[in-house]
Amino acid sequence: MSPVAFVYALHVLAAIVWVGGMFFAWMILRPAVIAALEGPARLKLWLQVLPRFFVWVWCAVIMLPVTGIGMININFSGFQTAPRYVQVMMGLYVVMVALFLRVSTLNLPQLRKAVLAEQWAEGAAALGGMRRLVGINLMVGVAVVAIAAIRPMF
């Protein structure tokens, strides 16, 4: 395998982990948890699930710019000469990271504090805020994947 192919594979895998994980959490896990568990148990489950997922998201947050910048330098000799779709994808990456930082550094601690104190209404509010931001982030991530898929026409 060539070094370029290896870097590209790492880049795609990081995107799959992040965007695919959000899709799974939003579209599959969330409805199943709502159907199977009562409020307090739901909040406790999410408090166990999200930190585990966020470890992988942090890996993706680091891997994507490292591999992306590597591919830019290999393929386009720098950001200035990269096609517009690459610049758009980088901008959307910044949006996704900002949303993730909000969820992981503000909302998750709020959820943890509420669950540990058994303040279920506050926990539900924190989880609801996370759900909205993850939904937005999922839409942005799907847009990035679509841009990557149609790049020759963009």
UniProtKB/TrEMBL annotation:
Give the transmembrane ranges: 6-29, 49-72, 84-103, 133-150
The keyword Transmembrane helix belongs to this UniProt entry's keyword annotation:
yes
State the UniProt keywords alphabetically: Membrane, Transmembrane, Transmembrane helix
Source taxon at top rank: Bacteria
The Copper resistance protein D domain sits at 48-150
| Pfam entry (one) | CopD
Q: Which GO terms describe its cellular component?
A: membrane
Q: Which InterPro entries match?
A: Cu-R_CopD_dom
Q: What is this protein called?
A: Copper resistance protein D domain-containing protein
